[in-house]
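User: Can you help me understand a structure? I only have the sequence.
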Amino acid sequence: MKAFIFFISLFVAIPAAAEDLRIAVVDMTRLFNTHPHTAAAEKRVDEARAKARTEFLEKSKALKFALQAHQDLLLAGKSTEAGKKLETARALQRELAADKTTRENDLQKQFLDEKRTILKNVREAVQAYNNEEGYALVLDRSAAAGSGIPMVVDVEGLDDITDAVIARFKK
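Assistant: Let's start by predicting it. Here is the structure, written out as tokens:
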């Protein structure tokens, strides 16, 4: 009986309290994409990728020439020199493989560091706006669960503060 009375009181108290709750939504993806530092960060990462790609192509070209020189020396009957060229080619191949792994990790870390910094700034802007406006809850309307199902399905009647936070970026 006590449990029944408790549940009934919850159904009466929650709607009354919910009337005083202010809930807002924000599109964190849009905030991230429109943040003033996002374009510059993407440009830096793209430039680093392009540089890595250029260096990879140069080393690949050197490897190709070393292998071609190895073949030419074999055909010319110069097996000692051909063996040395093959060792050079193998060293270049190992270097390429190590560089690829290291570069990919470095670029991934650079991207995540840049993204983390911008997202921290975005969260701080949302929190500052919320501190002034006094929402009890701010939900990310662009969030999705690991299964791809949206976390917020319907936002009818809720304040969308995305544009107000974007305006803060421009100040």
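Now, to help you interpret it: The chain is about 75% helix and 5% strand. Residues 79-133 form the longest helix (55 residues). Let me know which part you'd like to focus on.
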